[in-house]
Write a structure and sequence with these properties.
Elements (H helix, E strand, L loop, with lengths): L25 H20 L4 H13 L3 H29 L2 H20 L3 H18 L1 H12 L3 H12 L2 H16 L1 H23 L25 H30 L4 H8 L2 H15 L5 H21 L4 H26 L5 H60 L1
Helix pairs in contact: 1-7, 1-8, 1-9, 2-3, 2-8, 3-5, 3-6, 3-15, 4-5, 4-9, 6-7, 6-14, 6-15, 7-12, 7-14, 8-9, 10-11, 10-14, 10-15, 12-14, 13-14, 13-15, 14-15
Length: 413
């Protein structure tokens, strides 16, 4: 179990917070969340969504093959997996303001290196820097930073952040597309780097709270995530749940247009249907924000997975319902992006929340790195309908893990 151990002969785990969520009004917390949401919109739009519009221009300009170009993102995700646990520990012990500020600099440096690259080695180096930025500056670090300070007040803040961040692909695909026509892909990279320095860095330094709740007890505040904690069933099922969900989400995100094409949709229709994914995720997040306070995160997880499963099955078996199925799937994914921040905070202590998120981020990043290849093999060997049914089966496995976590949570409380 995750816990704090007091001195011998004293009450174990005694934790008194003299500062914390009560030091901020609801409006102030919403303002902080809105500001951090803007940074996430920029961070996602200039990293994980970068190659959606730049891959082909990079290939035409450099002569590099598409697998090598997209392989840069895999390098970044692997770099992220290496440092993610360390990032979580830094946030747990020192707070996240400096970590998030460093991410803005790392993203900017990575984008500049990519924009200057004339060889694959330099290009991959730029993505390695981007990976360090992703480990320290995307949702996991933002959620950990705020969760460490605000505790159970963080849930609506996370909803606000992911609602704003959900527009990343739409905003940056449009902006990048317009810039590409006149300025070229290298200038797009430089402009995106400037966004991190001119917008994200000041927000992190000004808006993110730097003071952590004070610990007044015999507790060793430097206590770490012990090896025995990795065998905690809650930790294991939580990691499994998120790995399975991320596997499905990444495969769908990378191969969605190809999958729809294999189902007989024209390219224009496939793009139109795929474009519904963003708005449907936003709708799911808005619903979660409206009713989230009335239901437990474990319950929200179960409902979201059921909606996802319905969407994938309908898409596989009822081609005439593809549009409706996409809306269901997107809404489920949208809710799960919130749950990824709120569920661990429900199951484990506030102080160790950042450490927990950092530990889980490693297998998630490794899963993301492997998912595009796994998805391609599925499409080639199973076809569109078969792949969708396999993905729904993976979601069913995640659903079982969520139900088990709900049971464990009920027993704990």
């Amino acid at each position: 179990m995750l816990c704090l151990h007091g001195a011998p002969g004293r009450a174990s785990g005694t934790l008194i917070l003299s500062t914390g969520p009560g030091a901020h009004t609801r409006f102030q917390r919403a303002s902080i969340a809105g500001s951090v949401g803007v940074t996430q919109l920029i961070a996602f739009g200039t990293s994980l969504y970068l190659l959606a519009i730049l891959a082909n221009p990079i290939g035409l300009s450099t002569g590099w093959s598409l697998p090598w170009i997209t392989g840069g993102m895999s390098v970044g995700l692997l770099a992220s997996a290496v440092v993610a646990p360390w990032v979580g520990e830094q946030i747990a012990h020192k707070g996240g303001r400096k970590v998030l500020a460093a991410s803005a600099v790392l993203f900017a440096c990575g984008l500049v290196v990519i924009g200057l690259s004339q060889s694959l080695l330099v290009y991959m180096s730029g993505w390695a820097l981007m990976g360090l930025g992703m480990a320290s500056g995307l949702y996991d670090s933002a959620f950990s930073t705020l969760g460490r300070v605000f505790g159970d007040k963080t849930r609506p803040m996370i909803s606000i952040i992911v609602i704003i961040g959900g527009f990343a692909s739409t905003v940056f695909w449009i902006i990048g597309g317009l810039m590409l026509e006149t300025l070229g892909w290298r200038t797009v990279c430089f402009a995106y780097a400037a966004c991190h320095i001119a917008i994200n860095l000041p927000i992190f330094l000004v808006a993110v709270p730097s003071r952590l709740p004070e610990v007044k007890s015999e507790t060793d505040h430097r206590a770490r995530f012990h090896l025995s904690d990795y065998t905690d069933p809650k930790f294991l099922f939580l990691a499994l749940l998120f790995m399975l969900e991320v596997l499905v989400a990444t495969i769908m995100g990378v191969h969605l247009i190809s999958l729809l094409g294999m189902m007989g949709q024209t390219l224009a229709t496939a793009i139109a249907i795929a474009a519904l994914l963003g708005p449907s995720q936003i709708a799911g997040r808005l619903i979660e924000l409206a009713v989230g306070s009335r239901i437990l995160p474990t319950t929200a997880t179960i409902i979201a997975l059921l909606v996802m499963i319905a969407g994938l099955v309908f898409m596989a078996l009822l081609p005439g319902m593809t549009t409706s199925a996409m809306l269901l799937y997107g809404a489920g994914i949208g809710v799960l992006s919130v749950v990824r921040g709120t569920l661990p905070l429900t199951l484990f202590s506030q102080e160790f929340y950042p450490v927990l998120i950092g530990q889980i981020a490693r297998p998630i990043a490794l899963t993301q790195a492997a998912a595009p290849t796994i998805g391609a093999l599925m499409l080639v060997n199973l076809g569109a309908a078969g792949s969708l049914l396999i993905l729904s089966g993976i979601c069913i496995m995640a659903l079982v893990a969520a139900i088990i976590l709900r049971t464990m949570s009920d027993v704990t409380h």
